[in-house]
Specification:
- The protein is built from four helices and no strands.
- The radius of gyration is 12 Å and the shape is globular.
- The longest helix has 15 residues.
- It is an all-alpha fold and 79 residues long.
- The model has no long low-confidence stretch (mean pLDDT 93).
């Protein structure tokens, strides 16, 4: 099993989640909640295990949320 998560770059994850938003908005909004937890360093081990802690820092998730149109609290930036 490949446990290397380094392919999950900011661009890759932004594109992935934007595609998810188009295919399943409900799932996308659930993911935004998880990303908010990650951005605020309060995610549990189940969520953290999907990412490489050296690459995927809280700042990484803040930038990812911004790319998706949200602030670090999960609030839309266009309000």
């Amino acid at each position: 099993m490949n446990t290397d998560k380094s392919h999950k770059t900011l661009k890759y994850m932004t594109d992935h989640f934007l595609n998810l938003k188009m295919m399943s908005p409900t799932l996308f909004y659930s993911v935004v909640n998880d990303l908010t937890l990650l951005a605020n360093n309060s995610a549990d081990d189940d969520i953290l295990s999907m990412y490489d802690s050296e690459i995927h820092t809280p700042q990484f998730f803040i930038e990812l949320l911004e790319n998706l149109g949200y602030d670090s609290e999960g609030c839309p930036l266009d309000i």
